[in-house]
Amino acid sequence: MHFASSATSLVGTLRDRRQKLAKLVNFPVVLWSGATISRNFAANTFPFRASSHFLYFAGLPLENAAIRLEDGKLQLFMDDAPDSSTLWHGETAKREEVAEIIGADVAYPLTGLKFNVYKSATIPVQNIVTREWQSKLLQRKASLEGIDFKLAKAIAQLRLTHDDAAIEELKKAAAVTVKAHKAGMTATKNAKSEAEVRAAMEQVIIANNMSCAYSSIVTVRGEVLHNNHYDNLLQPGDLLLADVGAETSTGWAADVTRTWAVSGKFSSTQQDIYDVVLAAHDACIAKICPSVEYQDIHLLAATIIAQGLVDLGILRGIPEDLVAMDAHALFFPHGVGHLLGLDVHDMEDLGDIAGYEEGRTRSDRFGLCYLRLNRPLRAKMLVTIEPGFYQVPAVLNNPDTRAKYQDVVKWEQLAKFADVRGIRIEDDVLVTENGSEVLTEALPTSEDAIANLVNE
Amino acid sequence: MHFASSATSLVGTLRDRRQKLAKLVNFPVVLWSGATISRNFAANTFPFRASSHFLYFAGLPLENAAIRLEDGKLQLFMDDAPDSSTLWHGETAKREEVAEIIGADVAYPLTGLKFNVYKSATIPVQNIVTREWQSKLLQRKASLEGIDFKLAKAIAQLRLTHDDAAIEELKKAAAVTVKAHKAGMTATKNAKSEAEVRAAMEQVIIANNMSCAYSSIVTVRGEVLHNNHYDNLLQPGDLLLADVGAETSTGWAADVTRTWAVSGKFSSTQQDIYDVVLAAHDACIAKICPSVEYQDIHLLAATIIAQGLVDLGILRGIPEDLVAMDAHALFFPHGVGHLLGLDVHDMEDLGDIAGYEEGRTRSDRFGLCYLRLNRPLRAKMLVTIEPGFYQVPAVLNNPDTRAKYQDVVKWEQLAKFADVRGIRIEDDVLVTENGSEVLTEALPTSEDAIANLVNE
Q: What residue stretches are annotated with the Aminopeptidase P N-terminal domain (chains A, B) (predicted)?
């Protein structure tokens, strides 16, 4: 077992978290960590990732473990590794040692769990084997209903804003992610393929003993939003879009995107669009402070992009009207960002419980349906701000779309911007008492500063 | 969809493979590819890894697909991606295009599968959701029994030896793995931690658009056989053991270990033990040729290690006698290697069906029970050769062990070798008609050649 955190502060942090939870729920809570998952055969597994809810209250990525929380007390359930595993996995921390590190009041073997789940709430974990175990012990399906739903709402309320220990970890993830992006920029000049730039970026994450919070996107085809292929060769006129983020050993994530010219120098059309996206990015961040509606930030990005495209002669009309008819979404089809924390889309396993204020639901509008966060901001929330511009053939070549937006898109003018496939600029922004702090501010957004790194 | 292989040769290769299978089984065969698996929330998945048996007969890592093989014919079952996925994942190859690339005789949507599984055999995939789907469609548990067992034996017979297309891929994986190890050696001088050396190695694999065939081991604590932590700092007197292998995009693996001095220079005790392990490594490879029993190669390694430890005054007695009483296994507790192919422990999902000649079972002996391969070698088999020496506290400090081997281990002499925690030297060796070809030969094993890379 390898624990980087200082045990003293971990104990206090975890105590605070469960005491806050105890004020929100009047039932016991059992959270499972999950288990390793086989890749191509049983012994060849994917790297273990503990459930984020477990990590929040247990602090450590323990495999095959569970915790019980009641009235601020913490019970740990885990088995000591069998002696036979020492040969293969070395000495691992014993249950009693782990209990001390995390400040558990008491610790039992896993067999004790079945006597302690009665009337407990839980959150279903991703691992299906563990989920079946949850259902079996609870004698009901773990499914975000009933008290599980109440628990999900309570946990969402806690995890929506970050405590000092969380922010410390999030800053570590952000700092390594900044380094990774700088390494990617610097590697571009001599790289022949997307894969080589990706490698330079992930090397930084691995060297810092972190993992990737999500599958990296490093592509010259930025218009494919979740492009996880890396086999394109880099051409001088290409834009390279890199969406790469680190995750600390206890699960805290960063999520950053930059787009730069492979040659180090934008074409004039690329520069024009980049400036529009950057203006949206900067304006959104400037607007962030407590009680601002995140949807308004999204609409601000949409409006600035619409205004920019009008100025470039790509769209025709009044920006606010264009946004009202979702014309911006032809080029900016996703939300301006999302919650960030232990998950890169924080608490997305809870559906929209965390992302949407109670009583709100997703819009049907093309320009709003992908918005993952719709709440008034609060201090210590961490959100991404990630406006973008993409030319997605499936969107722009759709005959219905072309008909619907016939009068507002100047297609001939748009054709001049063919060398802009996709641009996104994304930072991680902590809401503060009177504004915001950009955790990833050390990574430049200006063309010149990025070009300096590419040409280094 | 991104396919590196040349379509022409892929079609021919896959036809040959299923025609060979048709000669071994008289029932239809349905193989599933599996599906992506969620990490911390549904949309955040581990990288997809198709089932190796599927890859062998379908050639491409198709997600959520199945193939049916009968009398040398190939039917493909897959759904085209919905239009809505284009925004996120771009244009993907349609069923009919994939069918052409792999030479399928006919292609159907997945719904067609249920009409085509009657009396078919299958191999259970690792992904549990897909496995439940297999059981549901087959109306029985997919469990390596009955005709599934017959199929497993037939597939093992085919996959035991590699065709030209497989060898081509295996050589690609080996070549990138060699580069990765060289990069690790070169990075050591300026690296402060295991993680930094690991990063330098995996960077090469990622840059070549491959993935890691298994979780890398890069550790100064080589005595922990499957050590997947990377947080130790490098100290001048340390040995660094790196067991890292690449896997090509169609699933073919390499598996290589080297052990080198962090300082570039072994201590005299490290040099002594390294020379023993290297002697075993070289002798085992020299002995490889068709019809040699792999267990005899294992015992040869054991005997050379025992002899070397006798020469160093660590063991006392006749090497053959020491091996007969498993004294070598105090320091060399694992098998000398295993099959290598689409899985790093090839076909380990079939238990010992592939690894053990029919009628043979695992030994109870401590010195043999971890041997994963016990067959006479045949041309075009690919095996690893990986003798090692480890000082595992749990083994050496066990009172029963100390009592049992009291007369043969000179504990005081052993204590002088305290700076040798673990050494392993592993190469990938293809059995040829009259000997062997070491696919990873370009990676040096001699101390001097490695030191040159470390000191580069």
A: 9-134
